[in-house]
């Protein structure tokens, strides 16, 4: 009887040892549309795995977000450096979230709520009517979204010549202000121009000098 108990205990310890280190992580959350204060329904979400010691991004799953913007993935505990969540929807700023293996918990679900804003655009138009040789026009962004791949620079920008007539577009977060300070170098002509940008639309900021 004693041997049977010892054998049972040994098997239990062996089984427990085998179970240790196994299991899976649950990663879930919701994606929000900050502009309209609702879930980001219909966005494409892709979930990647990056193995340890590599830069390879292995696509594990791609889904279309449902009405409530929720997502959930279950992944095994394996040799992974990190996971990546990317969310894309037309006319919204893309989302990228890195989730490192070391921060994940097996005891409870790992929640990552994400959010983004709708895009808007500013049309900047500068035109010189003076026709004076050597004119120099400068502007610098005062307010507006910065740091994205398609954002216009935040540093001062210079244009030269008597026939400046240029137009370009700058992306901005919807329902926010975009402003520039401008001046015609060596003149008293300077000032601030601003516009409130509405979702999915383009607003004109124009300086004619």
Report the portion of residues in β strands.
over 45%
Q: Which H/E pattern describes the elements?
A: HEEEEEEEEEEEEEEEE
- Unreliable residue runs: 4-21
Instruction: Please bin the fraction of helical residues.
Output: under 10%
First-residue to last-residue Cα separation? 102 Å
Q: What is the molecular shape?
A: elongated
Radius of gyration: 27 Å
Please identify the structural class as seen in this structure.
mainly beta
Q: How many separate helices?
A: 1
Report the major sheet: 5 strands, mixed
How many DSSP-defined strands? 16
Average pLDDT taken over every residue: 90
Question: In words, what does this structure look like?
Answer:
9% of the residues lie in helices and 52% in strands. The chain is built from 1 helix and 16 strands. Strands 1, 2, 5, 8 and 9 form a 5-stranded mixed beta sheet that branches. The relative contact order is 0.16.
Can you tag this structure with a few keywords?
single chain; 209 residues; mainly beta; 5-stranded mixed sheet; 4-stranded antiparallel sheet; 1 helix; 9% helix; 52% strand; elongated
């Amino acid at each position: 009887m004693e041997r049977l108990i010892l054998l049972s205990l040994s098997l239990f310890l062996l089984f427990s040892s085998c179970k240790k280190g196994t299991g899976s992580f649950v990663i879930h959350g919701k994606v929000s549309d900050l502009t309209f204060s609702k879930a980001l329904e219909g966005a494409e979400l892709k979930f990647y795995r990056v193995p340890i010691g590599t830069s390879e991004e292995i696509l594990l799953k791609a889904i279309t977000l449902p009405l409530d913007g929720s997502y959930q993935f279950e992944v095994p505990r394996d040799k992974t450096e990190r996971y990546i969540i990317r969310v894309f929807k037309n006319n919204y700023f893309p989302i990228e979230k890195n989730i490192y293996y070391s921060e994940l918990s097996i005891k409870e679900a790992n929640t990552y709520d994400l959010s983004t804003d709708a895009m808007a655009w500013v049309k900047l138009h500068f035109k010189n009517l003076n026709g004076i040789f050597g004119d120099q026009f400068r502007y610098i962004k005062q307010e507006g979204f910065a740091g994205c791949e398609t954002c216009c620079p935040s540093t001062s920008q210079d244009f030269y010549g008597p026939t400046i007539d240029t137009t370009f577009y700058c992306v901005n977060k919807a329902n926010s202000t975009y402003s520039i300070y401008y001046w015609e170098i060596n003149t008293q002509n300077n000032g601030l121009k601003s516009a409130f940008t509405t979702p999915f639309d383009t607003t004109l900021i124009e300086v004619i000098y």
